[in-house]
Specification:
Elements (H helix, E strand, L loop, with lengths): L2 H21 L16 H8 L7 E4 L4 H6 L4 H8 L23 E4 L7 H13 L6 E6 L6 H12 L4 E7 L2 E2 L2 E2 L10 H6 L4 E6 L3 H16 L5 E6 L20 H9 L4 H4 L4 H24 L5 H9 L1
Bound molecules: thiamine diphosphate and magnesium ion (MG).
């Protein structure tokens, strides 16, 4: 993808999430939603370097990853509306997205628990001698889970084709890194000491993310083993939900404003070619409106649908 395509993909994701935030108070979307607004460049920079068959796993903050990998928008919104046309038949909600047709293998609510699943996928790829990679997105908070360490170790020992992407947005819910990890620790340096190649970059610079991932994927497929990339970024809205929460005391408005200046989409908003920007806005907004309409007008799962899941 060239830079304009990367930017367009980020804009589409931003508009989808803003539409969710704007419509959330209608009370039709009743599941918790963790928005990635402000973090779009990582999802897009990573997924633009993956093939359809490369596999992605994600966490509770999954919308951007799902969409960047090509996941169906109708199915995602229907899932958030709790409808049977959703990608988890309306029974999983925002944190349980899946679209296997594009290699998006799932997201879950338990912090860290898709990391070993991605490693397992990579093991299967290796056994089947596929020239593919498995990629897992997780936050800085997930690096505090035991399974993170076990999974990285296993991937190194077995030389597995897996790409670990840590989105460091400084917070785990309302706790900053300073109360969770020792002063001066750098996550990418810590994991490098385990014996995995590891780098660190600007997660709000989509071109940089893309360049890092292109290189990392090449290294994995050339047999250099798993790779770890940590990207700095910032979530703009509250941990869970559509609102801003800078007033509740765990972080400062000034910090948010500083990060807002580094908006990954700023080049689009400052683009002098207003006609082009307008075309993109109109195109994406029409698609998004249609997807909300589809979700809103779909059926809720029936008792029979629930029974089928229970019996399966
Ligand atoms: C095992 C587990 N512990 C705690 C939680 C509650 N929880 C949900 S999201 C979250 C924060 C995770 O932070 P991070 O991994 O940095 O992701 P971010 O929300 O910042 O994107 C926590 C602690 C959980 N879902 N699972
Ligand atoms: Mg975090």
């Amino acid at each position: 993808m060239n830079l304009s395509e990367l930017q367009a993909s980020m804009l589409r994701i931003r508009l989808v999430e803003e539409s969710i935030a704007n419509k959330y108070s209608e009370q039709k979307m009743r599941c918790p939603t963790h928005l990635s607004i402000g973090q779009e460049a990582i999802a897009v920079g990573v997924c633009s370097n993956l093939t359809n068959e490369d596999q992605v796993l994600s966490s509770h903050r999954a919308h951007a990853h799902y969409l960047a990998k090509g996941g169906c928008l109708n199915s995602m919104l229907a899932e958030i509306y709790g409808k049977v046309t959703g990608c988890s038949k309306g029974m999983g909600g925002s944190m349980h997205l899946i679209d296997k047709s594009v290699g998006f293998m799932g997201s879950t609510a338990i912090v860290g628990n898709t990391i070993p699943v991605a490693v397992g996928s990579a093991l299967a790829m290796k056994i089947q001698e596929k020239k593919l990679i498995s990629c897992v997105f997780f936050g800085d908070g997930a690096t505090e889970e035991g399974v993170f360490y076990e999974s990285i170790n296993f991937a190194i020992i077995h030389n597995l084709p897996v790409l670990f992407i840590c989105e460091n947005n400084l917070y785990s819910v309302y706790s900053g890194l300073e109360v969770r990890q020792p002063k001066g620790r750098k996550i990418f340096e810590m994991v490098r000491a385990f014996g995995i190649e590891s780098s660190h970059g600007d997660g709000n610079n989509v071109q940089q993310v893309s360049d890092y991932v292109e290189l990392a994927r090449d290294k994995i497929l050339s047999g250099n083993g798993p790779q770890f990339l940590e990207f700095d970024t910032y979530r703009w809205r509250e941990h869970c939900g559509p609102n801003y929460d800078n007033d509740i005391g765990y972080r400062e408005e000034e910090e948010f404003l500083e990060w807002k200046k580094k908006d990954p989409l700023k080049d689009i908003f400052e683009n002098k070619d207003l006609d082009l920007v307008k075309v993109l806005f109109n195109k994406f907004n029409a698609e998004i409106q249609q997807a909300h309409h589809f979700a809103d007008n779909s059926e809720f799962p029936s008792d029979k649908d629930f029974q089928q899941i229970i019996n399966s």
